[in-house]
Specification:
Pfam families: GAF, HATPase_c. The protein has 702 residues and is α+β, with helices and mostly antiparallel strands. The chain is built from 22 helices and twelve strands. It is elongated.
Length: 702
């Protein structure tokens, strides 16, 4: 029938154009990391070649059959490579015999083509060859569909997101082939209308198959999205153009015989390539994109499901559950399909410090991870920082010069989301790059910003609860200490009375002498303890006096070196402003902790020097070290101790004593390597200059 021939020519021409351009697009823009990329390009190119042959020659000619067999073999090989792209090496070994069997059955088509060609395409031999060919094609289609089912069902959820477009397109291809050859076998011949439609079916399959090689294919769904909608509108415009070109091609008859059909097919292919490259223009493409997003775009996220998942992740509790910090990172990472993430929390001074991670143990976070200028931008602007844009030099709020280099040098770092609570920066979550790369869009920014505010409220609430709990424990501690002080007062009074009585009534001089020495020492120690307890927490800048910091350090070294190897490796004379007893008490806590953390043969080293503004004392050990989580949440928290039976107040008391003198206590630690405590107190001369009084002693070291 004449109309069937015209439809066959039109549809196969469309199939050739779409398949060829899909192959070109995958070769240029497809995900380069996929192992099946070039197999797909070859399969689409051979399919386009078959469509050209089917559009140019009669379906019964041998060149059409040969090109179809080549295309089918290529698609079988693509199916095999899809198993390899899934990353399951064991699956490749298991499916190889099945794939070889399908390939062998398809190769038998060459023999059937030769048999049909030798019989002239007519007679019982040709009919038998046609029916046998249809049976073999049905077997190949059924086997390919079974392999596709096993591929998709057995794939991991993350792999399904990558494979689903390709699997769906290939399932459609072989499902159509199965029905086509089933009808042909039952009808004992090929139906002209179905033969013509095959070209259009190939064109329809090629589009989603090419989409599957897009780097963002895993983020796309089968429901209409902005990308699919825009492509659909573009195809409508291009389709109108192609229809006009096909009409023009039908009018061309400048070449006689079979060459006319080949000339027309070449014109259609050239027109199709020109259409995709040059149509529509940038202005028209931009208008189509905006129109699609505004009127037809379906949201990326199902907000109901996202919020339910977020609530379940944050709200779960139990003895075996992870901390709130880790759950906060996971809840945000789940939204963007990020495989891991890290949390930076604001400390008491407002600086961002490492607060934990979720599935990112190898992230090396420096002690000062984020400059204060960038933290201020996060707090003031609520900026969600995309690191790929920062690496490309794109700037939004003047943040580019403040982005830390260690994050730019971390390829997995993808985005930083601020956590804001009442316009105050609580922390920042750094998200790792998703398995399938994509750019953050306006919907990501909106949802991540809202989730960040919600997480900030949870973290702020937890911090408030911890502060209330700490205050309650301190209140109980103070009540207990009041009883202790009362008992110590009574004991001191009793011992003093015993001392006076012994001086008056002891008969033996030797006994009296020993008793006096013992009792006097005990009374002195108790009185000193009582004085320290009475002074605790009352130190102020009004009571600060200049003293030699290096001398105090040497006193501490002399006290402890009899029990453990304590070495003063560096000592410079310097006068600082503070209280000698408070510094001794703080140093004693720190050195004792260092000794407890070190082995018997591991020395504790001290350094005392001046940096020009402050007197600095460093206490260094090579002991067990402390984890980042304990440094942030446990070291300076009262009643939290890593030592068995420890009271957990020594480090806290040391820090408070040093702060009361206007100093600073910093800690660096690595598990298995050791710990460094650094005490800084202002030099007396520097403090005098700052206050405007000038130095009072020329002998002071600055």
């Amino acid at each position: 029938m004449e109309w069937a021939g015209s439809l066959s020519y039109i549809f196969y021409s469309i199939g050739a154009v779409v398949s060829g351009l899909a192959a070109l697009w995958i070769a240029r823009n497809g995900a380069k990391t996929r192992s099946d990329l070039w197999a797909a390009v070859i399969a689409l190119a051979l399919t386009a070649n078959w469509c050209v042959a089917a559009a140019s020659f009669h379906p019964g000619q041998i060149i059409v059959g040969l090109t179809e067999v080549a295309a089918n073999l290529a698609w079988i090989f693509v199916l095999f490579r899809l198993f390899g792209n899934d990353g399951r090496d064991e699956s490749i070994r298991l499916v190889r015999p099945a794939v070889l069997a399908l390939g062998f059955v398809e190769l038998l088509q060459f023999a059937l083509l030769a048999l049909a060609h030798s019989s002239g395409g007519e007679g019982e031999v040709a009919a038998l060859a046609m029916q046998t060919s249809a049976i073999f094609r049905m077997l190949v289609a059924v086997g390919a569909l079974v392999l596709l089912h096993n591929l998709y069902v057995g794939a991991a959820p993350s792999s399904r997101r990558i494979l689903r477009w390709n699997a769906a397109a290939m399932a459609g291809l072989w499902a159509f082939s199965l029905n086509f050859y089933t009808v042909a076998y039952l009808a004992e011949g090929y139906v002209g209308a179905l033969v013509a439609v095959r070209g259009l079916a190939v064109a329809i399959v090629a589009v989603p198959f090419a989409i599957g090689f897009n780097r963002a294919a895993a983020g796309l769904t089968f429901s209409p999205s902005r990308a699919v909608t825009f492509r659909f509108l573009s195809l409508l415009v291009i389709g109108g153009y192609l229809a006009a070109m096909l009409t023009l091609a039908n009018w061309l008859d400048i070449v006689a015989g079979s060459g006319a059909r080949l000339t027309q097919v070449g014109l259609v292919i050239a027109a199709g390539a020109l259409a995709l490259i040059w149509l529509p223009s940038d202005h028209l493409r931009g208008w189509l994109r905006v129109t699609a997003i505004k009127h037809l775009f379906k949201h990326r996220y199902d907000y109901r499901n996202e919020w339910i998942r977020f609530t379940h992740t944050i709200g779960r509790s139990g003895l075996d559950e992870v901390s709130l910090q880790e759950r906060a990172v996971k809840s945000m990472a789940d939204i963007t399909d990020s495989p891991s993430g890290a949390l930076l929390l604001a400390n008491e001074d407002g600086d961002l410090v490492y607060g934990g991670h979720w599935r990112w143990p190898d992230l090396d976070v420096p002690p000062d991870p984020v400059p204060c200028e960038l933290a201020q931008i996060f707090e003031r602007e609520g900026l969600i920082l995309a690191f790929d844009e920062a690496r490309s030099g794109i700037e939004h709020q003047g943040e580019l010069q403040h982005v830390p280099q260690w994050l730019l040098d971390t390829p997995r770092a993808w985005a930083a989301v601020p956590l804001l609570h009442y316009d105050r920066l609580v922390g920042v979550i750094v998200l790792a790059r998703p398995l399938v790369e994509r750019r953050l869009d306006w919907e990501d920014f909106d949802l991540l910003g809202i989730v960040g505010q919600q997480l900030a409220s949870y973290l702020a609430e937890q911090a408030g609860q911890e502060a209330l709990s700490e205050a309650a424990r301190f209140d109980e501690f103070n009540r207990r200490m009041a009883f202790v002080m009362h008992d110590i007062k009574n004991l001191s009074s009793q011992m003093s009375l015993l001392l006076r009585n012994a001086e008056k009534h002891a008969d033996k001089p030797e006994f009296r002498k020993d008793m006096l020495v013992t009792v006097r020492n005990s009374a002195d120690k108790l009185n000193q303890m009582l004085a320290r307890l009475g002074r605790y927490g009352k130190a102020s800048h009004d009571t600060l006096e200049p003293f030699d910091m290096a001398g105090t350090v040497r006193t501490i070294v002399d006290r402890f070196e009899r029990h453990h190897k304590v070495t003063l490796v560096r000592s410079e004379p310097m006068r600082v402003s503070g209280q000698v007893e408070a510094l001794e008490q703080a140093l004693a806590h720190i050195v004792q902790n260092a000794i407890d953390a070190s082995g018997e043969d591991n020395p504790v080293m001290l350094e005392a020097y001046s940096d020009g503004v402050c007197g600095v004392v460093q206490v260094i050990d090579s002991g067990k070290g402390m984890s980042p989580a304990f440094l942030r949440r446990g070291l300076f928290k009262p009643f939290v101790s890593s030592k068995e039976g420890g009271f957990g107040i020594g480090a806290y008391e040391a820090r408070e004593l040093i702060r009361a003198m206007g100093g600073r206590l910093d800690v660096e630690s690595r598990e298995g390597l050791g710990t460094r405590f650094t005490i800084s107190l202002p030099l007396h001369a520097a403090q005098q200059m700052i206050s405007g009084n000038g130095p009072q002693h020329n002998t002071e070291v600055a």
